[in-house]
């Protein structure tokens, strides 16, 4: 005969009510946590929601657990439990922890959310003490280092917006930004003001995206100057006059002007030239990718006048390593504004920039029949428009000898009668 088994409904296990915590109980639990190597959680039976977390390392923390009232209007579910930190055993004994937890419980019963309030207070405190410099440091490390023009952007922001860096980022206003840009433009650096603003705006958009600010104060700031394409081309005679005037200047500016004129490199690249990059025997300057604006290493051919200027700089500044064309071997020359004004007074030529020496070379080289792709390579342009996509992909020659010939031809024109 089959045995009839009576099925009883499953019963939930009864939960033993938590006892009021005592120091003896806490010491025993701490010992158990250290022996087992596991975290132990104790609940207080006197104030519901008060927890003590004991770690095997000996660290402890009091917490108050509560669940906000109501339900989610979309899902209909109750909110999950929230936790508010109170302190540890060193700062709060049992009685002190109960007192703090009781206050938090009163707030929760009244409909407040202590955990959310604490979180908001931390956000406000962080916003009040986080400066623009703090955010810029993170932005530079995580974003600008990935960009080819990252160094230029960092330098422009530090110089033009120097007054704002010490301010809390939440206090930086549209007026503050506009004033910095206008001040730069009023000093005559109108194009630099435009460029600096173009570098600064992505910083503030990044800060908005990552929650450092609620609104972007730079969004509606306009460039102070409407730029026009420059059609200024220095003639060979004007470049000669500039070189004669530069020779009357002192180290290192006169050497920098000669390097710029005879190599057609960029100003920052010349100012950062290092002794160990120069090979006088081979007549080449091996510029690393880290200092090339194009982001690729380049061998710059040195004509006879360029070699003479560099050799003279080595004689005046006999160092074995470091920045050659600078009074400080650890940093590039940075006195271009004053030195350029002196040069303008000596040569009598105005409305020109040091960058125009590159344009003068490119124009003269093209007029002399030098292939455009050779000129582009000499200027260290990336993905030059003078080449088709196929040629850019497969033509890997750096055209060194062709560039050397072009620069020698340019040097002959400058030193000729």
Q: What report would you give on this structure?
A:
- With 417 residues, this protein is an alpha+beta fold.
- The protein has three domains: 23-125, 2-Layer Sandwich (Double Stranded RNA Binding Domain), CATH 3.30.160; 132-209; 236-415, hpI Integrase, Chain A (Orthogonal Bundle), CATH 1.10.443.
- 47% of the residues lie in helices and 8% in strands.
- It has 16 helices and seven strands.
- A four-stranded antiparallel beta sheet has the order 1-2-3-4. It has a three-stranded antiparallel beta sheet with strand order 5-6-7.
- Strand 2 and strand 3 (60-66) form a beta hairpin.
- Helix 6 (174-186) runs antiparallel to helix 7 (190-209) and helix 9 (253-263) runs antiparallel to helix 11.
- The relative contact order is 0.06.
- The model is unreliable at 1-8 and 10-15 (pLDDT under 50).
SSE diagram, text form:
Layout: H1 23-36, E1 40-43, E2 50-54, E3 60-66, E4 82-87, H2 94-109, H3 114-129, H4 132-142, H5 150-160, H6 174-186, H7 190-209, H8 236-247, H9 253-263, H10 267-271, E5 278-279, E6 284-287, E7 298-301, H11 304-316, H12 336-347, H13 356-367, H14 372-378, H15 389-394, H16 400-415
Helix pairs in contact: 5-7, 6-7, 8-9, 8-12, 9-11, 14-16
